[in-house]
Amino acid sequence: MAQYIFCKMNISPLTLYPAIAHDTRLRCLLLLLEHDELCVCELTYALGAAQPTISRHLALLREAELVSDRREGLWIHYRIHPELPAWATNVLHETAQGVSGMSPFAEDLAAMKNMPNRPGAPRCA
Question: Among 11, 76, 123, 125, fewest CB within 10 Å belongs to which?
Fold first, then answer.
């Protein structure tokens, strides 16, 4: 099984807030917060965005050290960086709680819940 690669955590508010200011990145982070780990295809499905768009935003989140990734065969899985400082994790949890039930966040969660052929099946949707 592939392992996550962790880098030294050095995040500041000047890195966090611009990274989460974009709706696609925030939506990805909140889904990752809820689901622990997601494949790019799952995020693409939930957000209704093109794979290159999601991948570009995930790359920015990885560069900002907000997420870590691992490869498993053809799939790349992302999760909230496990070494994210508590203050940054708290910001994400408070944001998730604050937008609970709001659009588009509620629809993202519903789409993920209803996604057919989630990874683990032979193919992503």
Answer: 123
